[in-house]
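Continuing the series of single-chain predictions for the mutant panel. This is the parent chain; the variants come on the following pages.
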Amino acid sequence: MPGALQRCQKFENIQHQQMLATRSKMDTIELHAWFQQSGFVVTTLQHITLGLQYAMVTLDIAEAKDFTRDIEETSEPPCKR
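Parent structure:
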């Protein structure tokens, strides 16, 4: 009977180790998926930020051109001495 008990315990230990290995693999896959999603979110936010910065610079340039044009249109010719 002790031999049968040892075989049963070995089998249970092997099952337990397999379960832990499977759980570890699943945790690794979930962690990898989470990092991949996080990376995607960060990349998306970076693209949005860069897009907004580009839009702001474009608006600044457009306003500067409008301001320069307004000065040229409204300025009087320099006085002659």
